[in-house]
Design a protein that fits this description.
Layout lengths: L1 H17 L14 H9 L8 E6 L4 E7 L5 E8 L2 E2 L17 E5 L4 E2 L7 E3 L5 H5 L8 E3 L8 E2 L2 H16 L5 E6 L5 H6 L6 H17 L4 E5 L2 E5 L2 H23 L5 E4 L7 H8 L12 H7 L13 E5 L5 E8 L37 H11 L2
Parallel strand pairs: 1-10, 8-9
Antiparallel strand pairs: 1-2, 2-3, 4-9, 5-10, 6-7, 7-8, 11-12, 13-14, 14-15
Helix pairs in contact: 6-7
Length: 380
Amino acid sequence: MTKRIVLAAGLVLALAACQGQNMSTRHLAPIPPATMALMEAKGLSPNDPILMRAYKKESEIEVWKRGRDGRYALLKTYPMCRWSGQLGPKIREGDRQAPEGFYTITPAQMNPNSQLYLSFNLGYPNEYDRAHGRTGSHLMVHGSCSSQGCFAMTDEAISEVYALAREAFAGGQRGFQFQSYPFRITAENLTRHRLDPNIAFWRNLKEGSDYFEIAKDEPRVSVANQQYAFNGDPSVMAAVAQKRQTDDQQVTALTANGMQPVKLVYADGGQHESFRQALYGNAGQGGSLAVDTNARKRLGDISRPEALAAGPQEVVLTASGKPAQGASAPAAYASQRSGAGQGRATGIASQAGSVSEPSAGPADSQGSSVLGRMRSLFGG
């Protein structure tokens, strides 16, 4: 009997070591009082179901909660500290792409002992991804500010989001929907990105996005003929079809009025403007490359910091989809989210991540002298 007890204890210790933490209790942190007060003001409760929506270009993650009327209401919008890759879906293992699509998060996908403070697994590849032969694993939403295809929120933000998910599961929700988009799928964004190779995929995602926008309820998602298929209330489905027609007409009008097609090119992903300003000021836009060291310490490890300094380049395209000569400029970095009175979480986290990413990454558009300076600043 004594031998069996010793073996069992050894197994528990081994599992804890594999998970990277000594059975931390950080996953038990309560929802912050300010967020509890916000829920109360919106007529929501901690045990209400949740839904999340992520936007790469805007570098934001929204948390919605279902109210007593059965409709979801926006609780808070959290700035993303880091995502990697380009706009577009993840295709294969190692491409550094953060996934786009519709995913379901269950309690089994929550990791209370993550090396990146706290995390949950998106469940990539899902049925759609597998239908397209896509590969990859361990795609997470987590703390810190380092990404290899994940969404990094900072330790402070993931602690709050984790608590919101935990309480929703405690209230009986079996799984929450996580919608991941390249950008807010508006007629304007579709017009500007109309020549992108992913435009058909993004239009497919728009069907699910429109359903949620109209119904304020999650669409039922399946896969048919290698496409997402969305079902739900027939009246809502009719409204979605009408919205698609209206938006297509607006795309046609914007194109006719001369809105140019563009492509956003990232050195390696991006981050919310609030983090970029805290770290780099106006770097890449004629400003200083000095870094706020206090902000750097609060954020912890940042993957490929030199790739973030200048922000994305907006390349104007010709009608054939090729770059127009000399038509490239830094893109606007600030969020384009609209809607007054919506809850919003801003600022940078006070807790640091624990896993660094040593990969150097490409030099930015200002040349190797900038890369060298960023490496010396960050120790990369």
